[in-house]
Design a protein that fits this description.
Elements (H helix, E strand, L loop, with lengths): L1 H18 L4 E5 L4 E6 L4 E4 L2 E4 L1 E2 L6 E5 L5 E4 L10 E4 L2 E10 L10 E9 L3 E8 L3 E7 L7 E4 L12
Antiparallel strand pairs: 1-2, 1-13, 2-3, 3-4, 5-6, 6-7, 8-9, 9-10, 10-11, 11-12, 12-13
């Protein structure tokens, strides 16, 4: 089973590297699993399983994905929002709990780090750490969601606005 997972992930990453598409890789350290988010392919790979999922298109006001393991919607204009501001998307509610200046998180090449709480009836609560420049860098979910903690394993996560 683990060999099959490795083959799928390596194949996907090689294909993505050749076509220069966005691939976001997260590790779930508590269960030793990998989650790979590939918006251009409409796919989220969770361990040995690859699922086709809906992502917001480029014209949307959000970076979003709906998947049982990795669901979120982040406004593309998040920099205009303040602590306690919220939004709704596809039956989920979101709220900015905190905004940290870069001086507290020098590891990340970002001006601000947003702590976001998401909740919905099906999946409970989830918390994200997001930066505009690097995207989602961390996710913590309640016990009802698979994998619990996800940590970015790479330079860019889902929803990153890459600066050239």
């Amino acid at each position: 089973m683990k060999l099959k997972t490795l083959i799928i992930i390596v194949t996907l990453l090689m294909t993505a590297a050749q076509s220069k598409q966005e691939v976001n890789r997260y590790i779930a350290p508590l269960v030793n699993e990998v989650v790979v988010v590939v918006p251009e392919e409409g796919t989220v790979i969770n361990g040995p399983y690859g699922d086709e999922v809906e992502f917001c298109d480029s014209k949307s006001n959000y970076f979003c994905v709906e998947h049982p393991v990795f669901w979120l919607a982040i406004p593309k204009d998040i920099q205009t929002l303040q602590i306690e501001d919220g939004w709704e998307h596809s039956g989920s509610e979101y709220k900015i709990l905190e905004i940290f200046e870069n001086s507290k998180f020098k590891k990340f090449e970002s001006k601000e780090l947003y702590i976001i709480k998401g909740s919905n009836a099906d999946n409970g609560e989830v918390y994200f750490a997001y930066t505009v420049e690097q995207g989602v860098i961390y996710r913590e979910a309640n016990k009802s969601l698979p994998l619990g903690t996800l940590i970015l394993d790479g330079e860019y996560g889902f929803g990153a606005i890459k600066q050239d």
